[in-house]
Structure to design on (119 residues):
């Protein structure tokens, strides 16, 4: 993204976004999502505070990874996401409820075993 020369600013923005997101546990993919938002804000010359000033009817194309995380695709941290930020990121859309796996069909292990045995 051409921001290598601004590495110290990237570090500070990463820390700022991390706090904005609720100081979440950083593992792959959450660490990447925090970085995606940090780089996005820098590229747009925005701050975390600027993001919080938006309403749910904004026209920014936020990184898909951020939208997916705040919708619940990657799960939800204890206590949930910061509500105001979630409304901004999801543009007012409702997040998923329950665990991401709740909507998956049950595994048919007997069938899968048969398929594997034939192979």
């Amino acid at each position: 993204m051409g921001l290598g020369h601004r590495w110290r600013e990237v570090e500070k923005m990463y820390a700022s976004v991390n706090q904005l997101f609720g100081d979440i546990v950083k593992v792959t993919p959450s660490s990447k999502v925090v970085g995606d938002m940090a780089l996005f804000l820098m590229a747009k010359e925005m701050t975390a505070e600027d993001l919080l000033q938006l309403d749910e009817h904004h026209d920014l194309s936020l990184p898909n990874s951020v939208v997916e995380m705040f919708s619940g695709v990657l799960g939800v941290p204890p206590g949930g996401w910061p509500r105001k930020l979630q409304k901004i990121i999801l543009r007012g859309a409702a997040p998923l409820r329950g665990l991401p796996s709740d909507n998956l069909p049950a595994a048919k292990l007997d069938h899968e075993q048969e398929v594997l045995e034939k192979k």
